[in-house]
Write a structure and sequence with these properties.
The chain is of the alpha/beta class and 147 residues long. The protein is 41% helix and 20% strand. It folds into two domains: 109 residues, 3-Layer(aba) Sandwich (Rossmann fold); 32 residues, no CATH class.
């Protein structure tokens, strides 16, 4: 399973989130096209996804936190024959959920999948963890240690 291009994609995504730098700067570089994109924030990243997806590619999104009702670029997606899948892990059929968990576990073990941690905070600093979350600057999970 192809999971994106790590640092290159992150750099482009970061530029997309900063409108003063412009989308043209983000995708003006030679970024590799993708067969599949697993999208963490569809509304925020859809323009970049359209630029990066190959013809007949699949964008699977499990969230659109920053823009719950994203603008849908119908023709740019249609011209590429893109499939858009909205995924909710909570309602996956049990065999599909078990397979997904197995694939994630294998990817983490063999290093093909990197779990990103944006910050680790002791319980006493829970307010700081919330500030980081609300800032929109975190890339990855925010962990609050209880013990």
């Amino acid at each position: 399973m192809e999971l994106g291009r790590g640092v290159e994609r992150d750099a482009a995504s970061e530029r997309l989130r900063q409108p003063d730098r412009g989308l043209d700067v983000a995708v003006g570089r030679e970024l590799p096209a993708e067969d599949r994109i697993v999208e963490v924030d569809l509304g925020a990243n859809l323009a970049l996804d359209v630029a990066l997806i190959k013809p007949n590619g699949v964008i699977a999104s499990y969230s659109s936190t920053t823009r719950p009702e994203p603008v849908f670029p119908y023709y740019p997606l249609a011209y590429k024959g893109v499939t858009l899948r909205l995924v909710q892990a909570y309602i996956l059929p049990e065999p599909a959920r078990a397979k997904a968990l197995q694939d994630i576990d294998e990817g983490l073990r063999d290093g093909g999948l990197k779990h990103r941690i944006a910050g680790v905070f002791p319980l006493e600093q829970t307010a700081a963890a919330h500030r980081l979350l609300e800032s929109g600057e975190a890339t990855g999970n925010i962990v609050v240690e209880i013990a």
